[in-house]
């Protein structure tokens, strides 16, 4: 679609420098098109306080601010948690699964407003451009996508600031050291001294969690209850999703839990170094895994570990709305029917330590496993089991003796 044919654009708006500059840039480069700013509240906190007025001052004709926190947790975070999906053994996918719900809302607004295009402020170097655009393609295949970072000649922050001043766009006076992304699940840090993997993260960087060495000298215990794999209570108190994660974030943060430092493989081909603060999420993943140890049989648990790796890759790669993820969800939900119970954790200076788990569906039987006398297990059965289980090894060894191979 030619630029002059774009009459109305819905922009994924955050209130930051990039997306504020994009508003007048779109109007200037797409024949005076109307720009509607759409902001998704996935738990950024006070970052959203200035969004509405700033978007209008930057040239937007209308501003949407959608509270998506509950939907974000129930429809995107909890399924990923139940899958046990962790990208490259460390990253709990905080930015990755926030993008599809944001893009889904953009599509809804675009359809409601009769917009011709959807625009975003993701750069051409990152993963987010893929996540935004694949979601739009899956939900609105005929709408035009505009990615200014892949078109314009504003190649630095100073160039953007100069453009903003020229067009009378209000900009923040503080200069943030790190590039950050925040939602109710996590806070990420990239850039500056972190671009050298040899540099240890500075404690002053942490905005949510205490550094482990600054956490209390006394351990704290927390109990998390699950029903069919989903968290429902903290310390015996039933809570909604937002309240529950908020409570766990506070508990984990004050104990220095959930700080992750990873040099990860981006989808676009380069490695990037990120430091994530994920206090509540780390507690949930740990507790959920503890409960699965009790409630899933060996074959199911081991296969589910494989599924978790693939699930994490799909989420990371922006393939939330693909058929494979939906199919994997069906498998995961089947495994979670008995993942119900309570997990107690001991937190101490950045460490999460198991402190006991219970479930009405526990497959652990003290009667069978005890070292004391029992009336349910015949140890002599082990002889036949080992003979049959080891038969392929024995046959191969006999062949090798016979053939010297």
Automatic annotation (TrEMBL):
<keyword id="KW-0055">Arginine biosynthesis</keyword>
<feature type="binding site">
    <location>
        <position position="91"/>
    </location>
    <ligand>
        <name>L-citrulline</name>
    </ligand>
</feature>
<protein>
    <recommendedName>
        <fullName>Argininosuccinate synthase</fullName>
        <ecNumber>6.3.4.5</ecNumber>
    </recommendedName>
</protein>
<feature type="binding site">
    <location>
        <begin position="12"/>
        <end position="20"/>
    </location>
    <ligand>
        <name>ATP</name>
    </ligand>
</feature>
<feature type="domain" description="Arginosuccinate synthase-like N-terminal">
    <location>
        <begin position="8"/>
        <end position="170"/>
    </location>
</feature>
<keyword id="KW-0963">Cytoplasm</keyword>
<comment type="pathway">
    <text>Amino-acid biosynthesis; L-arginine biosynthesis; L-arginine from L-ornithine and carbamoyl phosphate: step 2/3.</text>
</comment>
<dbReference type="Pfam" id="PF00764">
    <property type="entry name" value="Arginosuc_synth"/>
</dbReference>
<keyword id="KW-0436">Ligase</keyword>
<keyword id="KW-0547">Nucleotide-binding</keyword>
<dbReference type="InterPro" id="IPR048267">
    <property type="entry name" value="Arginosuc_syn_N"/>
</dbReference>
<dbReference type="Pfam" id="PF20979">
    <property type="entry name" value="Arginosuc_syn_C"/>
</dbReference>
<feature type="binding site">
    <location>
        <position position="127"/>
    </location>
    <ligand>
        <name>L-aspartate</name>
    </ligand>
</feature>
<feature type="binding site">
    <location>
        <position position="264"/>
    </location>
    <ligand>
        <name>L-citrulline</name>
    </ligand>
</feature>
<feature type="binding site">
    <location>
        <position position="179"/>
    </location>
    <ligand>
        <name>L-citrulline</name>
    </ligand>
</feature>
<keyword id="KW-0067">ATP-binding</keyword>
<dbReference type="GO" id="GO:0004055">
    <property type="term" value="F:argininosuccinate synthase activity"/>
</dbReference>
<feature type="binding site">
    <location>
        <position position="40"/>
    </location>
    <ligand>
        <name>ATP</name>
    </ligand>
</feature>
<comment type="similarity">
    <text>Belongs to the argininosuccinate synthase family. Type 1 subfamily.</text>
</comment>
<dbReference type="GO" id="GO:0000050">
    <property type="term" value="P:urea cycle"/>
</dbReference>
<keyword id="KW-0028">Amino-acid biosynthesis</keyword>
<dbReference type="InterPro" id="IPR014729">
    <property type="entry name" value="Rossmann-like_a/b/a_fold"/>
</dbReference>
<dbReference type="GO" id="GO:0000053">
    <property type="term" value="P:argininosuccinate metabolic process"/>
</dbReference>
<feature type="binding site">
    <location>
        <position position="128"/>
    </location>
    <ligand>
        <name>L-aspartate</name>
    </ligand>
</feature>
<feature type="binding site">
    <location>
        <position position="123"/>
    </location>
    <ligand>
        <name>L-aspartate</name>
    </ligand>
</feature>
<dbReference type="GO" id="GO:0005524">
    <property type="term" value="F:ATP binding"/>
</dbReference>
<feature type="binding site">
    <location>
        <position position="121"/>
    </location>
    <ligand>
        <name>ATP</name>
    </ligand>
</feature>
<dbReference type="InterPro" id="IPR024074">
    <property type="entry name" value="AS_cat/multimer_dom_body"/>
</dbReference>
<dbReference type="InterPro" id="IPR001518">
    <property type="entry name" value="Arginosuc_synth"/>
</dbReference>
<feature type="binding site">
    <location>
        <position position="96"/>
    </location>
    <ligand>
        <name>L-citrulline</name>
    </ligand>
</feature>
<dbReference type="InterPro" id="IPR048268">
    <property type="entry name" value="Arginosuc_syn_C"/>
</dbReference>
<feature type="binding site">
    <location>
        <position position="131"/>
    </location>
    <ligand>
        <name>L-citrulline</name>
    </ligand>
</feature>
<dbReference type="GO" id="GO:0006526">
    <property type="term" value="P:L-arginine biosynthetic process"/>
</dbReference>
<feature type="binding site">
    <location>
        <position position="276"/>
    </location>
    <ligand>
        <name>L-citrulline</name>
    </ligand>
</feature>
<dbReference type="InterPro" id="IPR018223">
    <property type="entry name" value="Arginosuc_synth_CS"/>
</dbReference>
<dbReference type="InterPro" id="IPR023434">
    <property type="entry name" value="Arginosuc_synth_type_1_subfam"/>
</dbReference>
<feature type="binding site">
    <location>
        <position position="127"/>
    </location>
    <ligand>
        <name>L-citrulline</name>
    </ligand>
</feature>
<comment type="subunit">
    <text>Homotetramer.</text>
</comment>
<feature type="binding site">
    <location>
        <position position="188"/>
    </location>
    <ligand>
        <name>L-citrulline</name>
    </ligand>
</feature>
<dbReference type="GO" id="GO:0005737">
    <property type="term" value="C:cytoplasm"/>
</dbReference>
<feature type="domain" description="Arginosuccinate synthase C-terminal">
    <location>
        <begin position="178"/>
        <end position="395"/>
    </location>
</feature>
């Amino acid at each position: 679609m030619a630029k002059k044919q774009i009459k109305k654009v819905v922009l994924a708006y955050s209130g930051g420098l990039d997306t504020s500059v994009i508003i007048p840039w779109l109007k200037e480069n797409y024949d005076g098109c109307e720009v509607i700013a759409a902001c998704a509240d996935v738990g950024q906190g006070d970052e959203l306080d200035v969004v509405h007025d700033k978007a209008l001052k930057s040239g937007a004709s209308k501003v949407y601010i959608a509270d998506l926190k509950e939907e974000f947790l129930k429809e995107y975070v909890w399924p990923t948690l139940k899958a046990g999906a962790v990208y490259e053994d460390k990253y709990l996918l905080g930015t990755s699964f926030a993008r599809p719900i944001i893009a889904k809302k953009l599509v809804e607004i675009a359809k409601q407003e009769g917009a011709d295009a959807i625009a975003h402020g993701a750069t051409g170097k990152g993963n987010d451009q893929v996540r935004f655009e694949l979601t739009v393609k899956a939900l609105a295949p005929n709408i035009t996508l505009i990615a200014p970072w892949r078109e314009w000649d504003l190649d630095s922050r100073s160039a953007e600031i100069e453009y903003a001043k020229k067009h009378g766009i209000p900009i923040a006076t503080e200069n943030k050291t790190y590039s950050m992304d925040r939602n109710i699940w996590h806070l990420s840090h990239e850039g500056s001294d972190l671009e050298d993997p040899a540099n240890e993260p500075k404690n002053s960087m942490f905005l949510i969690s205490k550094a482990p060495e600054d956490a209390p000298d006394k351990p704290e215990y927390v109990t998390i209850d699950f029903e069919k794999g989903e968290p429902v209570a903290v310390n015996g108190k039933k809570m909604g999703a937002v309240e529950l994660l908020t409570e766990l974030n506070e508990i984990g943060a004050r104990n220095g839990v959930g700080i992750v430092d990873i040099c990860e493989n981006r989808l676009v081909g380069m490695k990037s170094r990120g430091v994530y603060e994920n206090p509540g999420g780390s507690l949930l993943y740990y507790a959920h895994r503890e409960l699965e140890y009790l409630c899933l049989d060996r074959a199911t648990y081991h296969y589910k570990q494989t599924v978790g790796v693939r699930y994490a890759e799909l989420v990371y790669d922006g393939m939330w709305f693909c058929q494979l993820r939906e199919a994997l969800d069906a498998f995961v939900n089947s495994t979670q029917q008995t993942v119900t119970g309570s997990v107690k954790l001991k937190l101490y200076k950045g460490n999460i330590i198991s402190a006991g788990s219970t479930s009405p569906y526990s497959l652990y039987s003290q009667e069978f496993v005890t070292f004391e006398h029992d009336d349910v297990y015949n140890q002599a059965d082990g002889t036949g089991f080992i003979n049959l289980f080891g038969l392929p090894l024995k046959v191969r060894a006999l062949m090798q003796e016979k053939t010297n191979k």
